[in-house]
Fold this sequence. Notes:
The chain has 498 residues and is α/β, with parallel strands linked by helices. The chain has 3 domains: 97 residues, Arc Repressor Mutant, subunit A, CATH 1.10.10; 229 residues, Aspartate Aminotransferase, domain 2, CATH 3.40.640.10; 106 residues, Aspartate Aminotransferase, domain 1 (Alpha-Beta Complex). The protein has 15 helices and 14 strands. The strands form 3 sheets. The chain has an 8-stranded mixed sheet with strand order 3-10-9-8-7-4-5-6, sandwiched between helices. A 4-stranded antiparallel sheet has the order 11-12-14-13, with helices on one face. It has a two-stranded antiparallel ribbon with strand order 1-2. The N terminus is likely disordered.
Amino acid sequence: xxxxxxxxxxxxxxxxxxxxxxxxxxxxxxxxxxxxxxxxxxxxxxxxxxxxxxxxxxxxxxxxxxxxxxxxxxxxxxxxxxxxxxxxxxxxxxxxxxxxxxxxxxxxxxxxxxxxxxxxxxxxxxxxxxxxxxxxxxxxxxxxxxxxxxxxxxxxxxxxxxxxxxxxxxxxxxxxxxxxxxxxxxxxxxxxxxxxxxxxxxxxxxxxxxxxxxxxxxxxxxxxxxxxxxxxxxxxxxxxxxxxxxxxxxxxxxxxxxxxxxxxxxxxxxxxxxxxxxxxxxxxxxxxxxxxxxxxxxxxxxxxxxxxxxxxxxxxxxxxxxxxxxxxxxxxxxxxxxxxxxxxxxxxxxxxxxxxxxxxxxxxxxxxxxxxxxxxxxxxxxxxxxxxxxxxxxxxxxxxxxxxxxxxxxxxxxxxxxxxxxxxxxxxxxxxxxxxxxxxxxxxxxxxxxxxxxxxxxxxxxxxxxxxxxxxxxxxxxxxxxxxxxxxxxxxxxxxxx
Length: 498
């Protein structure tokens, strides 16, 4: 029998520009080089990328590095994995940045595009922030609620005739700010007035606004390690010098602040109610220690309370902002997880004396938030629908969490130690010792149509590569069953040497 060798496509001759001494990982550099080649047409839709073995020889990189870069391309839709065939450039890559149906042509005789140093760091470090494909265990999915959908549609019809109006308030609609103030006072112990609230396009805009006001490029910032990637990248774009402090079962390890080895930072960014991505809750003694440190050194604290509504056991600890006597805490939250990401509604609560400063800066970034969505959500909150919606949503998320945990413990207990969260919409799993590279496991899972996020991509300085992140919001029972079966099969068939 004659064996025919798979014919390599022109992509086999592609040579990425890799700088071993650069701060970016080799996998990240390769990913960026491949993505740019796809975007400008040097690599064509439908071409098969070289196998990891061939690419390792041609590009002088390890197969693990190439696998990681391919996995990011697949997750973002730039490439697709075909079982038994290889990795192919997608027929319709997500390269269109201007909303047209064709790729922009590559300018002639252009050898270099000047970008800021901060942008280059964002492009070459950390995980991509492109939306993930809708696969089992992808994070950030939303559980649809028919009753809430019907209510929002009915309320929206009241506010359709608004075209005669001009710009709105810089801080957002007063009715929504008042409703948020009342909700946060009862549910999180946040002490504020509507005059201290700024409505934003989600948490990310709130963070960017706060960082711009409070930081000068070059300022030191302390974050949790691992850290929420969008916040870290936003800090990078604002010129921050980032230091990560380890996280354990009681949250960020505040004892490192008192060792004298760290210069007091300008700002500390934390997710104390449900640390992202580890899932721990910052203990009360550490909350008090963090507040005392900030008061003593004049540091600002950004408290990101992104999913505080989803508490399944016990009572949540009061917000940092509610415990703060020195007015050093800025508090931010969002309706993206509890209602809809497409609403683009978040909020930032600032100390009263900073309100004039934020009002002065806000118009330079965003004249005012859109009125229509604000009025709909203001009515939804003021008319008392939100608590009932949250109760229904919490029960669905609790059931989804419990179902996933049961399947993981039944089918993957030899390989995964499940950490069951008391709050939030994600859970983490740690290696039992049968594997040591979360990136390798994630890449292998993606070829099976399953998304498990490696926590090591969110590390600041930590070298821990033994944890994976599972999303369970919007996860159906069928998807949980299918996804865990595929993962179990993957571990049976493949070896991930510790």
